[in-house]
Amino acid sequence: MSVELLIGRPASGKTEACIQKIRDLQNKQPLANIWVLVPDSQNMAYFRRRLADAGGAIGVHIGTFSALYTSILSAQQIFTPVISPALEHRVVQETVDAAYETGSLTHFAAIKNKPGFLLALQDIFSELRAGYIAPQQFSDYTRDKSPAKREMALLYDHFINRLDALNWIDRDGQIWQAIGALAANPNLLSDIQLLILDGFSAFAGARVQFLKRLAQQISEILITLPGQVDSNRVVHRRTMVEVENLSQALSPHMIQSRADPHLFPESQHLEKHVLEAGEC
């Protein structure tokens, strides 16, 4: 199993490198099982068009993370319904009401029915799930924190328990189930020869854990990131954080693209000097 991390400036040929990787494998194994993950449907259409122009689109699965989660869960006969935003809002409201009725909610009691508070809870729960932070972890962290944080941990725990009781999952729950399925079946995705992740600039904690599981099963993984690893510029600091996180989780072979961006001169100047005082 090998993982490569290709880092390069915007429009410097990262997607082209991904396409070449696919074509090289197809030339050796015409029936190779290849997956490409991109951030959204717009990127899907763009990558599919680029790959089709290169003559290699047939047989390649191009989708978002969600498509791969669904494929994994379907293979394991796991079909837990994903709660809609409207129903999720209702479950959050029920969670808050239940905590208040039992006397567990005091700090937030005055705003328990405010729409803004309920929406904020939904966002916080989503961030915790995306960060791969379990209710017990959050509860342990907040044990000696402020009353607000302790009650937030309590509500998070009750919310997840409520979903489990209903046999539903939230929008970020699929990745937790997919990670569990991969852990339970170490050979589930062993038939995938190549996985490419292109167009992402960051990976939340749950996705990093998911990638860690994938790296144990898939023959070859190529991940692209925008930026420069040897740069001290502010605009590239986020890349360095992501590189550090992925390095710890995946121990990838890092490749720094030195190609110049294929941009108009004005755009190149902006890309080169953005966020640098006095340069634009």
Question: Keyphrases for this structure?
Answer:
6-stranded parallel beta sheet; single chain; 11 helices; alpha/beta; 52% helix; 6 strands; 280 residues
Would you write up a description of this structure?
The structure is a single chain. The chain contains eleven helices and six strands. The chain is an alpha/beta fold and 280 residues long. It has a six-stranded parallel beta sheet with strand order 3-2-4-5-1-6, with helices on both faces. Strand 2, helix 2 and strand 3 form a beta-alpha-beta unit. Helix 6 runs antiparallel to helix 7 (147-166) and helix 8 runs parallel beside helix 9. The longest helix is centred in the middle third of the chain and has 20 residues, at 147-166. The mean pLDDT is 91.
List the helices and strands and how they pair.
Elements (H helix, E strand, L loop, with lengths): L1 E7 L5 H15 L5 E4 L3 H13 L6 E4 L1 H11 L9 H17 L13 H16 L4 H8 L4 H20 L6 H12 L9 E4 L7 H11 L4 E7 L10 H14 L2 E4 L8 H9 L7
Helix pairs in contact: 3-8, 4-5, 4-7, 6-7, 8-9, 9-10
Instruction: Characterize the biggest β-sheet.
Output: 6 strands, parallel
Total DSSP helices = 11
Integer-rounded radius of gyration: 22 Å
Largest beta sheet: what is the strand line-up? 3-2-4-5-1-6
| Alpha-beta content class | alpha/beta
Number of strands: 6
- As a percent range, the share of strand residues is 5-15%
Fraction of residues in helices? 40-55%
Average pLDDT, all residues: 91
**Unreliable parts:** none
General form: globular
N-to-C span: 44 Å
**What is the string of SSEs from the N terminus onward?**
EHEHEHHHHHHEHEHEH
